[in-house]
Design a protein that fits this description.
The protein is of the alpha+beta class. Helices cover 44% and strands 23% of the residues. The chain is built from 14 helices and twelve strands. The strands form three sheets. The chain has a five-stranded mixed β-sheet with strand order 5-6-1-7-8. Strand 2 and strand 3 (39-42) form a beta hairpin. Helix 4 (74-91) crosses helix 6 (118-140) and helix 12 runs antiparallel to helix 13 (318-330). It is globular, with a radius of gyration of 22 Å. The relative contact order is 0.10. The chain binds thymidine-5'-triphosphate (TTP) and magnesium ion (MG). The site of magnesium ion has 5 residues, from strand 1.
Length: 362
């Protein structure tokens, strides 16, 4: 196959919790949760008791009474994630880091060769994975899980197949389709809560296998062209997107957790304004431009909501970003009993699109 690609997706295991266990021997082998009011992540020992990300810490304690709670060192985790990325950049040229602890690497050139048997290809992949995992472990003292696929999305699903400290290889499209067929469709990245509800209620679907019965047109009618086509293609192993080296981290932003409920809209808007100012300063320093602006809100009962808007063009303009933030904010029905508000920018590019065009023309 001429255009055949081999992608590797890595995802660090229980990232925040593993860093805490690494740095504090008394936490090793123990059920721990990192977070203050809410669990950001739990060690695998704690997950056995049902402790999960985004759960209220009080509930986590109820599920697992001997749980050790560790106050997060967010900046430090971020720096550790960056160290991992720098290690990877030293050895692999085509990468896209999608969050602090995961990313896609194009490893085609290390694996494919002419007239190579399938067995030889697989054994090269296995050797590559082993070296990769050892490289990260040796330098960071942390484990990760690795997935290999013929597309980014198949690699991502593979990295989740044998967590923690495991790996999985999708040899081809058939292998992929057979693997996902009987699974719950939440295995597919990008199928969010709303989409899931519609697929449940309107189509009675819960498993991937049931999605094959829905036509492309019907999916487009329900979810719009971009999401509809994505769902149709992805379950057939036909969704391909390129690694975007130019695209930086998936998102960054600021959020604040209030000590008590905030009920004043004005106060929340002011907080957003301050956060936008900080973000724009950072964008200018880093010479970055963004397309998507997300406002995140959490209420006193820990329920959270986000609202995003993606612009036609990239920007780092403070006024525009604040305007979009306010627009997102206006869409939340409930604007009181707020415990957390934050803003995130994503779809981050090193150049504005206008500059990109000029470069393409020369
Ligand atoms: P994940 O990779 O989703 O989770 P994980 O690394 O803790 O565990 P896994 O082995 O399943 O990959 O997220 C990476 C880090 O991001 C995680 O350690 C903590 C943080 N995080 C939050 O702060 N809030 C969240 O809701 C989630 C899901 C993650
Ligand atoms: Mg992870």
């Amino acid at each position: 196959m001429e255009n055949e690609k081999i992608y590797l997706h890595y995802d660090m295991d229980a990232f925040f919790a593993s860093i805490e266990q690494r740095d504090n021997p008394s936490l090793r082998g123990k059920a721990i949760a990192v977070g203050s009011g809410v669990v950001t992540t739990a060690s695998y020992e704690a997950r056995k008791f049902g402790v999960k990300s985004a759960m209220a810490m009080a509930n986590a304690k109820r599920l697992c009474p001997h749980l050790k709670v560790v106050y997060p060192r967010k900046n430090f985790y971020f720096l550790e994630g960056e160290k991992i990325q720098n290690l990877i950049k030293k050895v692999i040229k085509i990468y896209e880091f999608t969050s602090v602890d995961e990313g896609y690497l194009d490893i085609t050139q290390f694996i494919l060769a002419e007239n190579q048997t399938r067995a030889r290809k697989i054994s090269k992949i296995k050797r590559f994975i082993k070296k990769f995992k050892e490289y990260i472990y040796k330098n960071m003292n942390l484990t990760c899980s690795v997935g290999i696929g013929f597309s980014k999305v198949s690699a991502k699903i593979a990295s989740d197949a044998n967590k923690p400290n495991g790996f999985f290889i999708f040899e081809d499209k058939n292998h992929f389709v057979n693997y996902i067929f009987e699974k719950d469709f939440s295995i597919i990245p990008g199928i969010g809560k709303k989409t899931k509800e519609i697929l449940n209620f309107d189509f009675g679907a819960t498993k991937v296998s049931q999605l094959y019965e829905i036509s492309r047109n019907e999916l487009i009618r329900k979810f719009g062209a971009s999401r509809g086509e994505y769902i149709y293609d992805v379950i057939r192993g036909e969704h391909f997107s390129k690694i975007n080296v130019d695209k930086k981290r998936k998102s960054y932003g600021y959020e604040i957790t209030f000590n008590q409920n905030v009920n004043e809209i004005y106060e929340l808007q002011e907080e957003l304004r301050a956060q936008v100012e900080k973000i724009c300063q950072k964008l200018k320093e880093k010479k970055e431009f963004v397309k998507t602006i997300t406002v995140k809100i959490k209420y006193s009962d820990f329920t959270g909501h986000t609202r995003s808007k993606t612009l036609e063009n990239t920007t780092n303009d403070e006024k525009l970003i604040y305007k979009v933030a306010l627009e997102n904010f206006s869409h939340f029905v409930k604007k009181d009993e707020v415990r957390l508000i934050g803003i995130y920018v994503s779809n981050i590019f090193k150049r504005s699109f206008i500059q990109l065009k000029l470069i393409d023309e020369t």
